[in-house]
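User: Need the bound-state model for calcium ion:
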Amino acid sequence: MNNEKQSILIVEDEPQISRFLELELKHENYDTTVCADGRAALDAALARDFDLIVLDVMLPGLNGIEVLRRLRQEKQTPVIILTARDQVVDKVTGLDIGADDYMTKPFAIEELLARIRKHIKRAALGDAGVIVCGKLSLNSDARVASYDGHAVDLTKKEFDLLEYLLKNRNIVVGREKLLDAVWGFDFYGSTNVVDVYVRYLRSKIDDVYGITLIETVRGAGYVIR
Ligand code: CA
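Assistant: Bound-state model below.
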């Protein structure tokens, strides 16, 4: 371990929340910098290599989405965005333009601290946790999918199936294999369930956007190319 403290930029214009975050993060031995304005935050984030940025979306100056968009043109600093409960669009936009994670306010501090640790560790290992395939983007941590910036609302099994096929891109995966991987070895049922879920995914993605994402290979299984 090196002794240098990890640095976190807190971008939040609500004084109560930023003070709370600052105290909690200092208590966890992070070196913290606070910005209450989007433009100042962008300048700070570009001027210095923070280990992570906690970024509120609704900000004076530049909003958080714009800060993130401009930051990503230059840097891959891990970013966790903070959104209000009703800002679903911001959450998806944020993940689509390269946020590593999001939390909805009000959040549990322990959960935020856990995610901060995870993303700092992951950044050190060079693993982004986001799968991109054309206009489709899947964030495995946040478990959010989007197509061309629009949220794709998936159930857990739909997400797992899509994620597995994307991780095995260009490989034709048989129904039994998909059943084992997504439903588990102890699943008691027919492989027809795979076909049913592929249909669900097609109705939510292919039919909506006029594409062929998951190909059927007759007698063999499914593949995403
Ligand atoms: Ca705010």
